[in-house]
Amino acid sequence: MENPKQISNDKRPVIVSLRAILVASRPKQWTKNVLLYFVLFFTAGDVWVLNDTASFLSLFGKATTGFVLFSLVSSSQYLINDILDAERDRKHAYKRHRPVASGDLSSAFALTGAVVLGTAGITAAFIVEIAFGWVATVYLAISLAYSLVLKQIVLIDVFAISAGFVLRAVAGAAVLQVPVSPWLYICTGLGALFLGLSKRRSELVNAGETAGSQREALYQYSVPLLDQLIGVVATATPLSYILYTFTAPNLPDNDAMMLTAPFVVYGVFRYLFLVYAKNIGESPEDVVITDGPLIVSIALWLASSAAVLLYQV
């Protein structure tokens, strides 16, 4: 049954609904689309500022266009997800404050926003680059499948999340029309699995006995199982990055990129600490932009990686 507040909201000024649409689009989640810039960062060494500024700026513009369009497409999916999950979200400690669940945004207006954003994003993606358009389309299809079915299937739910991150990296390569080392996809996929499993653990712990009513797949998870799976992926993620640092063909032959590995290892350890000691892994996008030590670690990783890549030019 639709929230009575939603019904009254149909008569609200459009500007109010547009503001609610913006909130429901989850701007903080757009940080995930920064992966498109990572493709530029790690594959465009031959056109870096010291070598060809014009070419680098051109690629940066393409990456930014890809970031904006992917954000539109992902926001479309978030709106649809909120419509489908409205009843469940109302039982959640903080998800109940989402615009659709709280009644600040009607389902009809949210659906209209989703169609507009999704159509605009996909259409523009095809105009920018055909391959990029197809990647965006596949991403939206998988995201919708996740919202409708996949998130209710144990293990498949976190693999679907991981696929979304990998597709972001593929989208970056497509919009820039550059080859990417398979290791970037492997590291991205494993890192996303790590975040997804950590999220499920925090959801399970925070929800307690009501976990299943919020997400059916949580019925089949257990904290010991998730601890084992997190342990496996938390080991594989930094290991895959270390292998990437001395096997990727576009990196310096002196293996200097290995100097950046400690920051990645620390980042994984820090996130584990936050999940197990603070139990705040339910919203990875919040953790990444609010935890000081993690932010410093990411900044140092980017700075050291840039130094290594610039040195080879």
Describe this structure in words.
- The chain is mainly α.
- The protein folds into 2 domains: 13-180, Tetracycline Repressor, domain 2; 181-313.
- The protein has helices at 4-9, 14-24, 35-43, 53-84, 86-89, 99-102, 107-128, 130-148, 156-176, 182-207, 211-214, 223-247, 261-278, 284-290, 292-312.
- The radius of gyration is 20 Å and the shape is globular.
- Mean pLDDT is 85; it is low at 4-10.
CATH-defined architecture of the largest domain: Orthogonal Bundle
Class per helix and strand makeup:
mainly alpha
What portion of residues is helical? over 70%
Number of strands: 0
H and E string: HHHHHHHHHHHHHHH
Mean pLDDT: 85
Number of helices: 15
**Beta fraction of the residues?**
under 5%
Quick structural overview:
The chain has helices at about 5-10, 15-25, 35-45, 55-85, 85-90, 100, 105-130, 130-150, 155-175, 180-205, 210-215, 225-245, 260-280, 285-290, 290-310. The chain has about 325 residues and is mostly helical.
Protein traits:
mainly alpha, 313 residues, globular
Helices and strands, with pairings:
Layout lengths: L3 H6 L4 H11 L10 H9 L9 H32 L1 H4 L9 H4 L4 H22 L1 H19 L7 H21 L5 H26 L3 H4 L8 H25 L13 H18 L5 H7 L1 H21 L1
